[in-house]
Amino acid sequence: MSHPLYTLLRRLEAAHIHFTVARHREDTILITLTLVGERVEIDVFEDGHMEVSRFPGTENIVGGEELVEAIIEKNAE
Questions:
Q1: 3-state secondary structure of 32
Q2: Domain regions of the chain by residue span
């Protein structure tokens, strides 16, 4: 039996949905999808369960370089 992570990756590949794989937490693998109109984050845990966050958007341009600078300043550690 295959782990749900591999099943998910195969399904995304078969659907030709671009994704990235990352590890930001020790207990999950993060799969990120960037789709038209939304970004989706799927956390896959060792036990196979998944938690999904969806971030819909309009894809409108909301700023330029000044907005990039403001975002960096606001979120700098």
A1: strand
A2: 4-75
